[in-house]
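Quick one - inputs below.
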Amino acid sequence: MIKVGIPRALSYYCYYPMWRTFFEGLGAETVVSSATNKDIFTSGNLRAVAETCLPVKVFFGHVISLVDKCDYMFIPAIRSMGRKAYNCSKFLGLPDMTRALIPQCPPILDPEIDLNKGQRNLYKTIYGLGSHFTCHKSKIKKAIEQAWKTNSAYRKEMTDFGITPIQAIDKMSGQNCEPGSTLNLSPVLKIALIGHPYVIYDDYINHRLISRLQAMGAEVFTPEMADEGALDVAMVKLAGNPHWTFEADIIGAGEFYLEAKVDGVINVAVFGCGPDSMMIDVVRHRARELEVPFLHLSLDEHSSPGGLITRLEAFLDMVKRRKRVCV
Amino acid sequence: MIQQGLEEIKKQAPSEAEICGVATTGSARYLAGVVLSADLIKNEITAHAVAAMHYIPEVQTVIEIGGQDSKIIVIRDGVVIDFGMNTVCAAGTGSFLDHQAERLNINIEEFGQRAVESKMPVRIAGRCTVFAESDMIHKQQMGYGTDDIIYGLCQALVRNYLNNIALGKEILPRVVFQGGVAFNQGIIRSLSETLNMQITVPPHHELMGAIGAALLIHEEMDAGLGETRFKGFEVSQTNFRASSFICKACPNQCEVAQLSVDSKVLARWGGRCDLWERVGK
Amino acid sequence: MRVGIPHFGNVYIPVKAMAQRLGASDKDLIIPPLMSQKTLDLGVKYSPAEACLPYKLTLGSLIEACELGADTLAQARGTGICRLGYYAKNQEQVLHDLGYNAHFVTLDVSQHKFKSILQLIKTMCNDAPWPKIISAFRFGIGKLFALDKIEKVVQKVRAEELGKGEANQIYREAIKAIDEATERKEVERVTSECIDKLSRIPREEKAKPVKVSIVGEIYVVIDPFANMDLEVELGKLGVEVERTMTLSRWVKYSLFLNPLGIDEWREVHKVAMPYLKRDVGGDGWESVGEKVLYAREGYDGIIHVAPFTCMPEIVAQTIMPSIKEDIPVLTVLCDEQMAKPGMITRLEAFVDLLRFRRKRRKG
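Output:
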């Protein structure tokens, strides 16, 4: 059976179940890298240009860890999921950057996904991708349809049960979904955590941010737990038509949760993220308008958990004291 | 060092004094908390804010520049509504000045005095000590006066502080300046000139974190938290053992630190995951 | 309506010329002071810390324009990937917070450029009749083309002149004279006189100077304040500079040749294909392709300039080392913390390396 490597980074958190269904539908097996750890980060960091943002460095590390384990590496170049909103340059350059930095990588499957070009173009691209595995167009078509269904089910799992992508993926694979909360007391504070999924859910990058917040007595709400349509509406309300594909995760989620009257908003971002540097101020401004405490965390590979814990504690203290005063 | 401090307190405290509550703060607050069986472990941002508000109730901005880290705390109507901490590096902190004072062979205490004497400060590039150093050497070679260079350094630190830690924060009076660096007249002058506001330095500015933590535990005990968990000054004689080991549970190979008394493990820290924090409790 | 524009290379000169032809006064078109440390400080103060340098500089420039009374601000925007699409949005908010009641008119520089340029001009010219606009436009553009023509000569002469600095002096005088010219004939006269003067500067009687090309993100490639007078410094080191990106080239293609289906980057993209298959926004694809082309044309080296954290250029920077066409590349990242002495040191080392390589290839 042909093995397709899927690095557990970047778009993995948005689309893995869909990809797995697609490739399995074509008779291939998907191989996913393990969760980010020091080795993975170090191997990626050694190759990437210093100014590259941390999630992309981590991505390269994941690819390196999969190099001997698969026949193909799946790195789609996701240009746009529609509405003339585009993805950051790194996503588009990812396949070629990988080729440049990791010459020993097996052949890269890099279909370019641009929903603005219409459904026909999309299908044409995916047939091209599928042709590596089968010559039966009907089989590919069936795999695509199953994959779309899986994607909708995946999103629904997260919005219906308020769980994270990692929990949803485990659940959909039949594994036991850990409650994830090590809480003894019922949560006192509702905290929205906004940012890119590959930062929010990668425990290596964010030093177990979600579990720490939960242990400190916060109920954590992330963009994936909200309905996509609602996020979209919120995003357009706050900033007009989106410029980037993931604006809903930051601007949309920010506005949505602020309107839902959370007690505080934490934006977890990575140092050097171009798009975030422009989007954050929009949400910060809005939080100030509504007088909701807002914390911007800028993480990089040198961030220490100690500093992060201090900031989180101070932020939650601030939120608690405000709540007492304002209530 | 904690035990030494405890000895000092015991010596200075009146013999009839009864310790009703213990709080710890600062980057080593968890370690200290375990050693002292503290009743409250509080982060230094909240502690600094509480102390500042105690001395100057109308405070709206707390500027804290310490040796290795710096903070800004925004307070409105007696409530902390925003804060910032240095994130990328130590550019807006006291270590920047220590380093340059050493280079110039000047006592750090003299540093501040000389800065105030300057009439025409020199602009020094200042993202980090390395760049500032090369620019400073450049200016020295060009013949600028030492006082002017020193004040230029103070201005560079303040600029860094305002451009990084304080970026986007609304700074309103009263502005309270605390932390170890608040003794430096040059920094006070530079802050005052740049912000065009009066800068207040409270008494005991270098201990505001501790004072804040003390105020907080006082508040909680008054509200009826119960008996203190502090075991008494004999703790200063206890044989604590600090050790570390490499965890082999996963490829991260984290170094885990632990504190024990006799053979009982009191606490562990340092892993990326919470494996060791849960074990042994 | 008082129009204000941010600084970007010499763009203020043709815009000023157009405005004057249409009878506008100093109050109708506000050109902020030439960019300085003050502009940068202003921009940095009111920008997110990690915003790119062109954002911070144009913001500083626009704030200075508002300080002088501008209420209608021109800015570029792009659909697509790089942060340019967000400039106007965020900058407008910042200016409102500062108390300026300014609104933006934007120029789309990534698609429908022809239409967008015409719309912008019509708005800025306060709906004057087209024949007048076209005449004024021709006058303004004439100045831009003249300036770029002179600059190309200066880039060569700087490297070889015996008395360092003479070419720059003549260039500065020409810029001033062209700015003050009120007739097309005068512009032409100044241009030919200047080029004549440049050709008569005594040159060094030595082997051909080291030749480098400057590639990267368009704003920092073109604007001397943003790149800390990179080309002047290279000239001092005896290096001849070549640059594909100029304002006049952009105007020429966007207005006249693109609508005819002629894509100025077609060849560059083609040679980039084995290394980068697709557009990654900004000028990333172009930077990769230009490395290939300049290597093939026998240039000695490439200076790759980009703002710190510029996404498309990080992609280019990652891919460049794997390009088989071998040519040394020096990456210069521009941000507000970059100090000139630091940049000069690296340029000196790079040029030494290029000279050494040349000697080795000959010997």
